[in-house]
Write a structure and sequence with these properties.
The protein is of the alpha+beta class and 197 residues long. The protein has one domain: 3-Layer(aba) Sandwich (NADH Oxidase), CATH 3.40.109.10. The protein is built from six helices and four strands. It has a four-stranded antiparallel beta sheet with strand order 1-2-4-3. Helix 2 packs antiparallel against helix 5 and helix 3 packs across helix 4. The chain is globular and about 60 Å long.
């Protein structure tokens, strides 16, 4: 993405080194506009992809679709947890309304004679990360979540997923009043080694 496309961006390394997730509980509107969302999706599309398979697809939830899909989640949850009270079921119904836009990243990894499924799934993970970085570059808040509904077969059916497909993550997009605090990370020098013969 060139500076001419997004002239207001700080240096790209600065974006990478300072990127932080914003929890959905701290998100609000506005979400990405049409052009910003297109750029975020394109960033997700431009990932390493051995064999040019494109082993992922995106399902976007915005506007009323978020609440409509929330109803689906609540129905599935209530069916699976018959003892759940109304308050808990309403929490499930509000999952996708916590942010202005939610993007489901679906891994479509399949058997291939040369390319392992593992590599294909990592490509879907890279798509998620690229979307987070793109959102940060645009000054937006973003979080990559899975939660129970990423692994539920009834939810998969509602998403139109085929056999073998998996949810790599749900990317929540919006705005935040404050930048998130830096969190503790493992010391980098403990995670890096240099191989020698």
């Amino acid at each position: 993405m060139s500076a001419s496309v997004l002239p207001h961006l700080p240096g790209f390394m600065d974006v990478l080194l300072k990127r932080r997730s914003v929890t959905v509980k701290d998100m609000k509107g506005p979400g990405p506009g049409k052009e910003e969302l297109a750029q975020i999706l394109e960033a997700g599309w431009r990932v390493p992809d051995h064999g040019k398979l494109g082993p992922w697809r995106f399902v976007v939830f915005e506007g009323d679709a978020r609440a409509e899909f929330g109803k689906v989640l609540a129905e599935i949850f209530a069916k699976q947890e018959p003892k759940a009270d109304k308050k808990r079921i309403s929490i499930e119904a509000e999952r996708f309304t916590r942010a202005p836009v939610v993007v489901a990243v679906i891994s479509t990894a399949a058997d291939h004679p040369k390319i392992p499924k593992w590599e294909q799934r990592m490509s879907a993970g890279a798509a998620c990360q690229n979307m987070l970085v793109a959102a940060a570059a645009l000054g937006l808040a973003a979080q990559w979540l899975t939660e129970w509904y990423a692994f539920d077969k009834d939810v998969h059916k509602a998403l139109g997923m085929k056999k073998g497909e998996r949810v790599a993550g749900f990317i929540y997009l919006g705005s935040a009043d404050e930048k998130p605090e830096e969190r503790a990370r493992p010391p980098l020098d403990e995670r890096v080694s240099y191989w020698k013969a």
